Each structure stands twice: as C-alpha cells, then as structure tokens.
Amino acid sequence: HYAIPHATSAYLAKKALHGKVKIVTTLHGTDVYLLGLNPSYKAIVEFSMENSDSLIAVSEFLKKETLEKFSITRPIAVIPNFVNPEKYKRTGRGKEKIICHISNFRPLKRVADVVQIFGMIVKERDCRLYLVGEGPTKHPAQKLVEKLGLEEKVYFRGNVGDVSRILGKSNLFLLPSQQESFGLAALEAMSSEVPVVATRVGGLPEVIRHGKDGYLAKVGDLDTMAEYCLKILTNESLAKKMGREARMRVLEK
Questions:
Q1: Using one digit for the tens of pLDDT, what is the confidence trace for 152-169?
Q2: What GO biological process term is on the record, naming one (predicted)?
C-alpha cells in the first residue's frame, strides 16, 4: 500500500531476495498527488511504481491522475475500496438529528466548511454535529465553533476506534473535501444507510450517485451543500430512501 515508502522498501527486499517475490502496489492518493508531485520524491515514486509487478488504483480518477502525472508504462488495474457491510449498518437513531464528519483533519478535508455548513443548517433544523478524527486543522475548527457560538451543538470526538457505532446512529454524512481519491469514509457511511452530501471531486462521483444516494456540489459551495443537507434532514421519507439506496450501492459494488 502506497508507492512511497512501502513499494520502495518492497523493491529493495525483492532485490535482496534475488527477485523471488512479486510486488503489488496499491495507490491510494496522497502518494500520487501530494508526495508524488514533490520534486524531492517524484523520481523515486515513479521508479517504485514502474518496478512493481502489478499496480492498483482505488478509483478511475486516481488511475487517470497517475497516468497523466507520471511517465510509467506499467498497466494500472482499478480495484475500488470496500467495507464490511455486516460491521457498517444502521442502528438505533434518536429523535435529534446527527450530522457526522470523519477525517484526518488535513487542510484538504476543509473541516472549517463542515462547521460553517452546520452553522447554516442549525438555524433551520435542530441537530448535532459529530467531528471524528485528529489533525492539523482541528484547533482552528474548534476556534470557529466558538466564534459561531456552536459549542453546545458540536462534539469533537477525537480518534475513535470503531466509527461504525457513530455512523450507525447518524442521519447525514458531510464531506466537503478539496480532493478525494476515493472516499472510504463516505462508503462506510453509505453502508450504514447514511446519505452523503459531498463535493464533486476525485473519485467521489464514482461512489455517490447525485440525487439517488446522496448529493454532490462544487468545492466551496457551502450554500448549496447546506441546502442539500436540509433537504435530507427535513424529509424523513427521502432520507430513508436515500439511505436504503446507499446501502444497496455498497452491496452491489
């Protein structure tokens, strides 16, 4: 998993074993459009991919990005991420609506957008926001929550060992990312019958069908995302239908 450092280490191990092992490298995203494009790493990333016996990308988007940005001749197979539907499924949900966001709180995840969108939603519909994860933008997000006076409605849960429990009782998953090579968190939510409102970037359109099991919007279009969220939160029959469609999507994939 990941072209750097794991594929590089695997190549060295293969040489030490005189080529008696095969290297299968799975590209996840940051190894391609973050580390891979750094001038300090690009050559070794390209070398590691080209010298793998098999290359896998988690989405068609990531395959396309890799072929455009690197000079490799090795064919790339697309094998999407998957989740265990027996683990991620709907559980009991209370009367108060819960919006959930799970990420590593990197700038690309745009957690501030999550908070701002929630600020718009809570003016129209009583609900709570669970922010799950840790990362560099957590503190700024906490400051924004205080600035908007949302402290009693926003819960920073930190790193959670089993996010399925939170997803199982959530009503909506919000993912306003700048970039997503696939969107595994969205897939976990969908398996839990949770409609997803996300950005139309990267591999997300390969996972979420706009208007059927979730909604997609442009990056930074907070008003539209808030509108989509309210559409789901205020229409119980629509929310249930989208939730069922989302889980079926996971089972079919």
A1: 999 999 999 999 999 999
A2: bacillithiol biosynthetic process
